[in-house]
Amino acid sequence: QVQLVESGGGLVQPGGSLQLSCAASGLTFSSYTMGWFRQAPGSVREFVARIRWIGGTTYYADSVKGRFTLSRDNAKNTVYLQMNSLKPADTAVYYCAAAFRDGGYDSWGQGTQVTVSS
């Protein structure tokens, strides 16, 4: 079955950077659009970014545009979310998700905690 494993979360000061990774298995990775979502305490899960299965086109939430960069390595079945200029408002559990081609997300990782605090 599809398995998504996130890594790279942690504690960082405001203005700092982190890179999250999501390693996928059990799927034909190049046929999947990969997304990142996040959920802060007491809030609903929100979209952060996605990268299409074809062409590698990326889309970002307005709140992270210009600060976050999403990329993928199809040879390694991995996506990377580079997060720069982090703010306390970015504090959340970050989840990786997979969608076959342009369909709905039907596979999710377990999440990785990102905390931005001084």
Uncertain stretches: none
Largest sheet: 7 strands, mixed
Residues in helices, as a percent range: under 10%
Distance between the termini: 40 Å
Q: What structural category characterises the helix and strand content?
A: mainly beta
Note the run of SSEs as H and E.
EEEEEEEEEEE
| Mean model confidence by pLDDT | 97
* Percent of sequence in beta strands: over 45%
Q: Tally the helices: what do you get?
A: 0
Radius of gyration: 13 Å
Q: Any idea what the shape is? A: globular
Number of strands: 11
Question: What's the quick description here?
Answer:
The chain has 118 residues and is mainly β. The protein has strands spanning 3-7, 10-12, 18-25, 32-39, 46-51, 58-60, 68-73, 78-83, 92-100, 105-108, 112-116.
